[in-house]
Amino acid sequence: MAKMIQLTISCQNRPGALAEIAGILGKANVNILAFNVGSAGTMGYVQFVVDHPSRAKKKLEGKGFSCYEEQVVYLNVPNIPGAFFRLASKLAAKDINIGAGYQTTVKGSGKASIVLAVSDLGVADRVR
After folding, report:
1. What is the 3-state secondary structure (H, E, C) of 7-31?
2. What is the CATH number of domain 2-71?
3. Was domain 72-124 assigned CATH 3.10.180.10?
4. What ranges do the domains of the chain cover?
């Protein structure tokens, strides 16, 4: 597992908001490794794991976006049935809570990428 910085950006829940944020990152030459989007009423948020979090945060805040950063675990697991069960079970056995997470893969790929916010990053980082 790898520890990474996740940025959570507050934004309006409106058409084009995500495109605007992604455009700022693209112009800053920041690559998006993973993202998650959510909303509540008129407000939204985007969680990003990127290759240059400090540059991304600086550029986004320079454009008026509020950014919160936290460390998360970013890892690849086999893209097979039961893989996430095995990972979650190992974390639970170490008394580690998964507070939030998201995952993606490409159909036919042998690996899936997972981002997890966990209660004990140090211990989780050593779980195999």
Report:
1. EEEEEECCCCHHHHHHHHHHHCCCC
2. 3.30.2130.10
3. no
4. 2-71, 72-124
Whole-model pTM? 0.86
How much is the average pLDDT of 35-49?
95
- 97-125 per-position pLDDT tens digit: 999 999 988 888 999 999 999 998 888 87
> In the beta sheet, which residues pair with residue 32?
50
Three-class SS state of 89:
helix
pLDDT at 20 > cutoff 80: yes
Strands 66-78 and 32-40: unpaired
Q: Tokens 């794991």 appear where?
A: 49
Q: Counting every residue, how long is the chain?
A: 128
Reported as half-sphere exposure (CB side, CA atoms, 13 A), residue 115 has a value of 18
Residue 92 exposure: Cα atoms within 13 Å on the Cβ side? 6
Q: Edge-to-edge, what's the strand order for the sheet holding 98-104?
A: 32-40, 43-50, 2-12, 66-78, 111-118, 98-104
- Please identify which residue in the block is written with the tokens 């195999």: 128
